[in-house]
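Deliverable D4.2, example record:
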Amino acid sequence: MGEIKISPDYSWFRSTVPLKKIIVDDDDSKIWSLYDAGPRNIRCPLIFLPPVSGTADVFFQQILALSGWGYRVIAVSYPVYWEIFEFCDGFRKLLDHLQLDKVSAYNKMLGKKPRCIST
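Output generated by the structure prediction step:
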């Protein structure tokens, strides 16, 4: 991502979409980082979840394009959870914190085809 970070598109993204940090668990070391772009009145946004080795900004091109078309897009970097149920509980708390009614989630796993899931 070295060359991408110096690109005009990435610079524009970082200057227009702030990185937010949110703690939703009792453990203050578990920090969710996210970019939230598009109309805030939309309560059913598209959420991008990066691969384990990625961060929220890997989706910067999708965030810029989709929010420009009027969609609300949230890309998250999640903290380390050692159990899947803990991750799901933390993700639910994040959605509650953001006051989201329903989401469409997109996850890209390394070495796999992209999947689209809804909750």
